[in-house]
# Entry
Amino acid sequence: MIEITDVAAEKLLMSQVEGKVVKLFKTSQPGDLPKFALGLGPFNEKDLVFESNDVEVYINPNEFEELRVAVIDYVDDERGRGFIVIKGQNEACGLVSCEDCGDEDICED
# Structure
C-alpha cells in the first residue's frame, strides 16, 4: 500500500496543473537500489492509478511492482524542501521491525 501524508496531500492538491497528473516514477538506474520521485506529468492510459488522502497518483505498472509499500511525505527542514518517497515500512521507520517503530500511521498493513 502506498500512502500520502496529510502534509504531502495538502501540497499536492495546491499544486495541481490542468492537463497534468501526479506521477510517481523510478529515478534509479538498472542494477541500483530502486529510488522513486514524485512530480507532475502527462496522463498515460497504461498507468495504474491509486488514491490516498484525496490525491490520485499515477505510476507505471512495472515500477509499481518494485515499490508496493511506501509513504509519500513533504519535508521542509535541514534536508531541504520537497517531496520524499520512503520505500517500504522498515525504511520509513528506520528500524528493523515495525513493532519497534511506534508510528502506527506508517506501519499499518
Remarks:
- The longest strand covers residues 70-77.
- The domain at 2-107 is CATH 2.60.300.12 (Hypothetical Protein Aq_1857; Chain: A;).
